Amino acid sequence: MKQAERTRSEKFVVRFPLGMRDWVAQAAGVSHRSMNAEIVARLRHSMDNWPDQLPGDEPAVPAGDEERFLLDHFRRLPAAKRRALIALLDGSRPTV
């Protein structure tokens, strides 16, 4: 990066979840970029592919289909996640 570009850039601190820094470092190595360049490239790709129009007032699930939608998703969860969700809804501690 040239000095002129450095002075025009903005700094932003990001806290990664554990292990993500290594993941980014590995991806950067494969792409032959710095970690910063890898993050910027991936963020730029994501933003370039962001939909022009986000859903407005349309509900994510058509009215009247909420229960079916939730049940379908619940049935696809692994057993441990189903138990945890039930415990959360019941207000009790989840069991493993």
Automatic annotation (TrEMBL):
Residues forming coiled coils: none
Annotated ranges, domain Arc-like DNA binding: 9-47
Gene3D superfamilies: Met repressor-like
Pfam families xrefs: Arc
Protein name: Alginate biosynthesis transcriptional activator
Organism: Alloalcanivorax venustensis ISO4
Taxonomic path: Bacteria, Pseudomonadati, Pseudomonadota, Gammaproteobacteria, Oceanospirillales
